[in-house]
């Protein structure tokens, strides 16, 4: 399936104006695609990428809201976050202004849930590399979508993987370019796909696959993985693709 996604595209085709780069439009398209894909395997991968993009759009909207505030205005952080969320939802749902309060809250909770899962994926990327979005199985989606699975749990998981399965981050790096393609909603030509395939480090892949088939090995000493700070920019790996992100 991975080769099919790279050549045919992971995302459904939509007509769009490349000059129309409003954050709300991009976010709304991502939200729509999460819901319309029918193939289970494609839907799983698509949802992961859509979730990290949605978290990115949200963070960008928060920045815009902050920039629009007068320098001397006393604005609480929670107010800014709430305004960013409702701005995106108002633009996405054409009937937002006539939607009742209960329905609005349900829509907000759905958006918040998807966005928060996207944040946790971005945290895992920070620790292990972008390719982790591709190599994880569906069990990881179940974990990520659990509300009780926190940022501390992501750090604990990453620490366990790095110490007990040290080749996993190297395997992840083999698929970084795949994730970049998915983030950009791009495709590869058959020649580009062949080049990517030929350039893969098969020794790393085989060694990593062999390692994760075995029970975890207790390391002689645990390597301490520094926990990311609350001020860390988790979406920079997405932002680096911004020049061709608006599709």
Automatic annotation (TrEMBL):
<keyword id="KW-0732">Signal</keyword>
<feature type="signal peptide">
    <location>
        <begin position="1"/>
        <end position="16"/>
    </location>
</feature>
<protein>
    <recommendedName>
        <fullName>Isoprenoid synthase domain-containing protein</fullName>
    </recommendedName>
</protein>
